Amino acid sequence: MEIIITTKNLTLSESTRKQIERKLSKIGRHLPQARELRVEITEEATKAVKDRFVARAFLDVFGPVLNAEARAATLPTVIDQLESVISRQAQDFKTKGSDIDHDSPRFTPPDIVDADLESRLEIERYATKPMSLDEAMATLAGSNDDLLLFHNERGEVNLLRRQSNGGFKLVVSEAA
């Protein structure tokens, strides 16, 4: 993660910059998808001493940008507050969606009651006979059924269907 520090109305020593980078680099370890952290530090001439330093952070997380702002009387205090706020936001972003209760009724498939299943499903037992395709076509032509399940010469299960145009359609089963 790249950390970019800009200042307004003040100059930072190199040791202060390193200290700020060291403190804020922890966020990159907690949130590896973070691309860039921009920090803006401003010294304002305000009447209220407690708002003298303002620090803003913008954390780019490959899409959303997390924003944080802190105000304090001293520079180390404002950096500590900013680090606290942006790390909390990064932690919230990281754990977003993980608190979903996957055991809730919203995520469980509906239970199918056996009585309900039996009311929708009709089971028909059918003994298949070994026969050739010609025998199967003759058998289906002589019956009122539209389907005929049979074993072919190789022992495979086939389904012969009568089509609406009077022809037949052979469905051959294959192992998936």
Q: How many discrete structural domains? A: 2
Which structural class do the helices and strands define? alpha/beta
Number of helices: 4
Distance between the termini: 48 Å
As a whole number of angstroms, the C-alpha radius of gyration is 37 Å
Largest sheet: 4 strands, mixed
The top-level CATH class of the largest domain is Alpha Beta
Number of strands: 8
Strand order of the largest sheet: 1-2-3-4
In the CATH classification, which architecture of the largest domain applies?
2-Layer Sandwich
Here the CATH topology of the largest domain equals: Double Stranded RNA Binding Domain
Strand content: 25-35%
What would you say about this model in short?
By secondary structure, the chain is α/β, with parallel strands linked by helices.
Give an account of the 3D structure.
With 176 residues, this protein is an alpha/beta fold. The chain has 2 domains: 93 residues, Ribosome hibernation promotion factor-like (Double Stranded RNA Binding Domain), CATH 3.30.160.100; 48 residues, 2-Layer Sandwich (SHC Adaptor Protein). The chain has 4 helices and 8 strands. The chain has a 4-stranded mixed beta sheet with strand order 1-2-3-4, with helices on one face. Strands 5-6-7-8 form a 4-stranded mixed beta sheet, with helices on one face. Strand 5, helix 4 and strand 6 form a beta-alpha-beta unit. Helix 1 packs parallel to helix 2. The longest helix has 20 residues. It starts with a strand and ends with a strand. The relative contact order is 0.09. The model has no long low-confidence stretch (mean pLDDT 85).
